[in-house]
Design brief:
Structural class: mainly alpha
Strand content: under 5%
Number of strands: 0
Radius of gyration: 12 Å
Largest sheet: none
Oligomer: single chain
Number of helices: 3
Helix content: 55-70%
Length: about 60
């Protein structure tokens, strides 16, 4: 099957570890929108779950 996409951390759209940039590339969205959405969801969920999910994705997602 051609044209399959893989979820990877981004090296070109990386601010901390490239997780949000990688998600943005995978979903074909603007990285700024993904980062803003992540921050809003983290604030609304008391912060800790968002940080925990980010750390897990940082370890699990392969580097670009």
């Amino acid at each position: 099957m051609t044209g399959t996409r893989k979820l990877k951390r981004s090296s070109s759209n990386s601010m901390i570890a490239g997780v949000c940039g990688g998600l943005a590339e995978y979903l074909d969205l603007d990285p700024t929108l993904v980062r803003a959405g992540y921050v809003i969801l983290s604030i609304l969920s008391s912060g800790f779950p968002g940080v925990l999910v980010y750390l897990i994705l940082m370890v699990v997602m392969p580097r670009d």
